[in-house]
C-alpha cells in the first residue's frame, strides 16, 4: 500500500499534460511578422541594462573588461535562444518556460519554473521603476528627491522622504498602464520606440569612438595619482588598472550581472499564437533580436569605457552622464530623454506577462482558483495591476538595483537551463499526443522492447526513438544536469584548482569522465525525425553547453541573492505541496482515470 501511494505521488510530480492543438495557420489573429517579433524582442531586451547596469558593472566588478562580460552573457543567451527556437518550433503554442517545462519534464519542475518567473518578473518591474526614477531625477538635477525631503521632512522620517518618490511615480505609471491595456496600435508604437532606442544607442557608439581614448583601457596607478585619487576611502576599490582591473573573478561576477541585459526575448515566444508562420518567424525573431542586442551592448560598453575612465563611473551612474565627462551637455539631455522613453515603454508592458503566467498556473490548478480570473474577470486585471504596481516600488525601496538584477537573472538562468534540458529530452522522444497513446505504443512494442542491455544501450536496434530509448535519455539527461551542477560548484573554487590541489583536480577529472560517458550514451540514441523549421545544431553538445554556462553564471551570484531565492522557493513549495499537487487539473484527471 505504501509503495503504491509513493508511486502515485511520484507520478503526480512528473505527470505531463497532453499537447493542445495550436491555433490554425490561417487564423486572423496571426498578424505578427518576423519584423514585429524582432522589434518586440529588441524593444523589451534593450533597456535598464545598457543605460544603468553598465555603470554598476564597470565601477566595481569589471572595468573596461565589461566588453568580455557582455560577450560571455551573450554567449549564454544565444545558446538559450537556440534552445527556445527549437522548442517553439516543436511546441507552437503561446507560453513561457512554464509551459515548455510542463509538457516535457512534468508538473513539479513546471511549478518551480512558473513560481520563480512570477517573482522574477515582479523584480524586473521594480528594476525598471528604480531606473526610471534614477533617470528622471538625474535629468532634473535630483530636484525631485530634494523637494520631497524639504517639503515632508517635518512629517515623516528622512528615509521615507528619500524614497516616497518611488511610490508616487509607481502610482503614476500604474495609471498609465491602466490606460494602455487595450491599445490597438501596440506593435506600431513598439517598432517606433525600438527604432528610437537603436538610433540613440548608435549615436552613443559613434560618439564613443570619436571622443574615446584608448588609454582608458590601459590605466595604471600613476593615472590614479594624477587624477587626485590618492585617498580612495569614499570610492569603490579601483582594482589593479589595465583592461581587467578586477581580475578573472570580476569578469565572472560581471558576466552574471550582465546576463540581465539579455533577458527580454521571452516576449517573442509568448506571442507564438499571434505570429505568421510561427515555426519559421519565431526562431528567426529570437536569433536575430539576440544578435542585434549583442552588437549593441558590445558597442555601447566599448564606447562608454573609452569615453570615461572606469573609476569615474560610480554605482548609480547612468549612460547619459558619460557625455558630461566629455563636455557634450546637449547630447546628455538627448540621450537621457531617449532613456526615459525607453524605460516608459518597458513599464507600460511589464504587467501583462505576470498576469498571463498567474492566470495559466491558476487555470492548471497549481495556484488558487481566484487567480484564474486575473485575465478574464471584469475588474480582476485592474486589481492585479494595482497589486503588482504597488509591489514593484516596495521592492525597489528595500532592495538595491544590483540585488534586484541578480535575483531576476538567477530566476531566468534556472528557467533557461530547464528549457535546454527540455530540448535535449524532446529530441530523443517518440511521437506522442497524450499519455494514453504513449501507453498504447509501449504495449504494442511488447516486453522485448523494455529489456535494456549494455549492447542495446550503445548500439540501439531501432533507427527511430522508442519508449525505452526515450526513458534512457530522460534518465541520462537528469544525471547530466546533476553532474554539471556539481562540476560548476567545483569550478567555482578555481583559485584552489590553480594551486594544484590533487584532490580537487581528481574530482574534476572524475566528473568530466562521467559527463563524457553519459553524453556518449545519449549521442548513441536515435533522434526524432520530425520535420522542424529549426533544430538546435550539434545535439547533445549545445544544450549541455547552455546548461553548463547558465549554471556556472548562477554560481557567481552572491549569498544574499541565493538567500532571497531560497525564501521565495520555500514559500512556493509550501503552496504546491499543500494545495497545487492536490488540485492540479492534470493530477485530478490522472487520479480519476486510475
UniProtKB/TrEMBL annotation:
Residues 534-584 form the Cationic amino acid transporter C-terminal domain. Pfam families: AA_permease_2, AA_permease_C. The keyword Transmembrane applies. Coiled coil: none annotated. It is a multi-pass membrane protein. Keywords: Amino-acid transport, Glycoprotein, Membrane, Transmembrane, Transmembrane helix, Transport. The chain crosses the membrane at residues 35-53, 65-87, 99-122, 152-176, 188-210, 243-265, 286-311, 331-358, 379-401, 407-426, 472-497, 503-523, 532-555, 561-581. It is found in: Endomembrane system. The keyword Glycoprotein applies. GO terms for molecular function: amino acid transmembrane transporter activity. One of its GO terms (cellular component) is endomembrane system. InterPro entries: AA/rel_permease1, CAT_C. Belongs to the amino acid-polyamine-organocation (APC) superfamily. Cationic amino acid transporter (CAT) (TC 2.A.3.3) family. This is Cationic amino acid transporter C-terminal domain-containing protein. It comes from Panthera leo (Lion).
